[in-house]
Design a protein that fits this description.
Strand order of the largest sheet: 2-1-3
Radius of gyration: 14 Å
Number of strands: 3
Structural class: alpha/beta
Shape: globular
Distance between the termini: 4 Å
Helix content: 40-55%
Low-confidence stretches: none
Oligomer: single chain
Largest sheet: 3 strands, parallel
Length: 146
């Protein structure tokens, strides 16, 4: 199973989601390959300092993360595309991704870009809840198989 997490700049939400999902998948024994990308990302940017800090608080190291533009990986094939907002989902569909491959979280995930560490923690909390639901979905629908 291949999953792509998508946000705007690929320095906050989607890298956090990717890392959180990989941890959850590992706990559940799910076989998944994950990446993240941004609709308007510049390839090679590091994760934001506050994203690195709040992920470190839960034992995840994002210090080596580098962003990727969705344009660079459009030719890659993913089983699921997980946008952080409905607007990102619309952008994916405009890029030719079928809506049957798009998994929407219950609510849009708040964009913490430029915000305080507390705001990043709030976003991490939103992601943690949604990641558990996504892992439930993957486990039920795909059984964690590739």
């Amino acid at each position: 199973m291949r999953i792509l997490f998508v946000c705007t700049g690929n320095t906050c939400r989607s890298p956090m989601a990717e890392a959180l999902f990989l941890e959850e998948a590992k706990k559940r024994g799910l076989s998944c390959e994950c990446r993240s990308a941004g609709i308007a990302a510049f390839t090679g940017s590091p994760a934001s300092d506050n994203a690195v800090e709040v992920m470190k608080e839960v034992g995840i190291d994002l210090s080596g993360f580098r962003s990727t533009s969705i344009k660079e990986i459009l030719a890659d094939e993913y089983d699921l595309y997980v946008p952080m907002t409905y607007t990102h989902a619309q952008a994916l569909m405009q890029l030719g991704i079928g809506k049957q491959k798009i998994y929407l979280f219950e609510n849009d995930v708040s964009d913490p870009y430029g915000g305080s560490v507390e705001f990043y923690r709030k976003t991490r909390g939103e992601l943690e809840k949604n990641i558990k639901l996504l892992a439930d979905f993957v486990e039920k629908k795909y059984g964690g198989e590739t």
